[in-house]
Amino acid sequence: MKAFQYVTAQSVDSARDWLGPRASYLAGGNDLLARMKEYLADPDLLVNVKSIPGLADIEPGDGHWTLGAQVTIARIEQDPQIRKLFPALHEAAAEVGSLQIRNVATLGGNLAQHSRCWYYRHRDVVCLKKKGPTCFARLGENKFHSLFTGNPCISTVVSNLSIALAALGAVVLVQQGKQTVRWSIADLYAKAWDNPIAHHSLAHGDLILKVEIPVEPGRSAYGQISEKGAFDWALVSCAAAAVFDDGRVKQARIVLGAVAPVPYQVEAANDLLKGKKIDEPLAARAADRLLAGAEPLEHNGYKIPMARALIQRTLLKLMG
Amino acid sequence: MMDSKSSGNDLLSLTRRNFLKTLGTTAVGTAATQVESVAAELQKLNAETIVGPAPIPIVLQVNGQAISIEVEPRVTLLDALRNHVHLTGAKEVCDRGTCGACTVLLDGQPIYACMMLALEAQGHAITTVEGLAHEGQLNPVQQAFVECDAMMCGYCTPGFLLSITALLKRRPHPDADEVKHACAGNLCRCGTHPRIIQAALKASGVSVTSQTEVIRYADLA
User: Fold this and answer.
1) In whole angstroms, what separates CA B137 from the centre of its chain?
2) Cβ contact (<8 Å) for B97 and A30?
3) Which CATH architecture has domain A58-113+154-214?
4) What dotted CATH number matches B140-220?
5) Of A66, A176, A291, B16, which cross-links A59 as Cys (Cβ 3.0–4.6 Å)?
6) How far apart are CA B111 and CA B116, in angstroms?
7) DSSP structure class, residue B81
8) A72 C-beta neighbours (distance < 10 Å), count
């Protein structure tokens, strides 16, 4: 990687002040340093945001829990209360990389990481996501790519935590200029749906501060299918959360990962579950609604039956 | 910190002598000045002043010793350990946090040394494979690796030793699945995993033989 300067910010304001056009925020560094080693990123200055007071706290609450963006994924995975209240988040955190990665990687970094598309990650390939003219995956090797997208780039969102947090209805607090904005997970990735260059909606200089997770009196679950049994990216992931009233679904959210550039949600699938008891036929119909309109490419068609099975499995897991 | 008077083992003292010789400009002082120097370097780093891109002085606490080196901010902990501290136990293989050969412990927790900047490892206790043996005695995991013949080329071995040592510290009696989970971030291309899992169980006090099945092959079919 190229030489750079380094500074530790002690407040959100000073982090923003340090962040010139040729600077990058540094959290756990797993994604950024890997891109720098591949010469995909070559910042002149790294602004360490890990020491900003308050951003590494887990704050329990009756209405919602607040997790600082600098909380490590290992801490999320190992917190017994998180495991009890937000099982989907616990299960998604447990699937992130390996223990060595989870001990260092942060919540904010997981949400803001870049595409894993092998064309994007190749230093010599100038693909659409790197402002080139073509998405090479469309007619090339696309087994890990999207079934749904609103733009010509077919790379997928790879953050496990984003899938679980979307199902849990989490709100992301983002420092944008002088103000702190509150985004849903859908807001956090909306730009990646339309814009082939975007990995998320964060502009240069925007900083994820915290994530708020509402405490709902329901249940949640996350699952993923990977080529390897551990330490692997999801081929397809699914998270679901539901609040029940007398055994019937009052409200529900189902989210699919690794099939679109965003955590993929279909309102009609959520609506289908309302007022009903979840059983196998209902879960299958919900899967139909989620997967309607999927556009498989040459090598990723297997994701459709895989996602169908995973949606059913995840919904049935909600029933205990 | 190692005490030169109490080191009765030839191998260890030789290693220590070579180790100190190779440090060159490194200052190895008393415990008190070490703590002060670590605090001083950390304070400088936290004072919101820009450092680099030229080399800057940093202090790493490796296997109980404070070691002063000068590195550029871009130098990873792995690079610093191997090429500046001359401890080559942590191996460089993928250099992308995907293989586990560079695993070291940071405050007792396994991390990839290739994906952490050396200057960010300041103020933390770093343990490398060189720090596992004590007064010439292999630690129980190392001893079990020898007895179970749990290695072939040996490149992944230091990383596995540290992952398993950390596991046994937080969970002294794991089962085979917990060992696999703890070692998921360490790859062995020679395929010695069954012996490695046996060695981990043996180190935890379970009686195993070379016939002990720790991977249920029938379930994989």
Assistant:
1) 17
2) yes
3) 2-Layer Sandwich (3.30)
4) 1.10.150.120
5) A66
6) 8
7) I
8) 23
Q: From B94, which residue of chain A is nearest by alpha-carbon distance?
A: A34
Reported ipTM:
0.95
State which CATH number among 3.30.540.10, 3.30.390.50, 3.40.50.620, 3.30.360.10 fits the domain covering A219-318: 3.30.390.50
Nearest to A10 by CA among A85, A70, A74, A82: A70
Structure token pair of residue B104: 């070291």
Is 3.10.20.30 the CATH classification of the domain at B10-131? Answer: yes
Task: Say what the alpha-carbon torsion angle B59, B62, B64, B69 is, to the nearest 10 degrees.
Answer: -30
**In this structure, which topology does domain A1-53 adopt according to CATH?**
3.30.43
Instruction: Categorize the per-residue pLDDT at B209 as very low, low, confident or very high, splitting at 50, 70 and 90.
Output: confident
Which residue ranges make up each domain of chain A? 1-53, 58-113+154-214, 219-318
The predicted-structure confidence for A129-185, as pLDDT tens digits, reads as follows 999 999 999 999 999 999 999 999 999 999 999 999 999 999 999 999 999 999 999
Residues of B with CB under 8 A from a CB of A: 45-46, 48-53, 72-74, 76, 95-97, 100, 103, 106, 109-112, 115-117, 119-120, 163, 180-182, 184-186
Please confirm whether the linkage preceding B53 is cis (ω < 30° from 0). Answer: yes
